[in-house]
Write the structure tokens for this entry.
Amino acid sequence: MAKLLDGKIVSKEILDNLADEILFLDKKPCLAVIIVGEDPASKIYVNLKKKKALELGINSIVIEMPSNIAPAQLLNKIDELNKDEKVNGILVQLPLPKHINKDLVLEKICPTKDVDCFHPYNIGKIATGNKPYVYPCTPKGIIRLLEYYDIKLEGKNVVIVGRSNIVGRPLSQMMLNENATVTVCHSRTKKLSEITKQADILVSAAGKSGLIKKDMVKEGAVVVDVGMNRNENGKLCGDVDFEEVETIASYITPVPGGVGPMTICSLMVNTYDLFNLQNRI
Ligand code: GUN
């Protein structure tokens, strides 16, 4: 039976230490979050971020904008936050309404305040094997979780299902930079299970419940589930059929309680790291 990769325990340990460090600061780090429109899932995520920041002594500013906002107004707000010395990290919650060009918005964020690591400057640093100011939250959280359980990446066959800019693409490059052999699969991949069965470490970030079944996983593989889906009964579930796959994997993340808490943990650490960068500690 697989051991759990417990994101709740690991993130708590990291954030307890972070809270201690923040306690002794005269000036506190500050995260600004912009949310455009009424997407219910986005609202839940933004509230979680605000609550966690508050618990840690990180100041947070949440800016709510209506879904019909003019793109220029959003860009102006980012400009204002870029110039505001009290603000250390800027996050624009995605998705944005269709009339707004997401890439223009993300490029407007100053790279030194790019707490999500979505700016092409930072993501380009990773793609060229260099260091961004901070790493993207979910990939960073996954790598930290594997490290905690002493699961090495070097020389491993990693298969990632999903090529999003938030998880699959940056994670593939970060794991490549750690000397893993990385394969990225997606919705057009042929014979998916033949590829996933090769994985020493299988990461599913496809957003499709029940995608990963037992017969797609090699015995003893490490399985990381990034999915956040709702099943027919409205229950939160990942991409992996947990009950089946835990009988064959060596380690597995639960949903909830695996990658999710690590993502928010990385966001808080990133805010603190950008604060230190801007204050040259
Ligand atoms: N929407 C879903 N995940 C994320 C994330 O990690 N950052 C932002 N900004 N938006 C998201």
The chain has a mean pLDDT of 97. The pocket of guanine is lined by residues 91-94, 116, 137-138, 166 (CB under 6 Å).
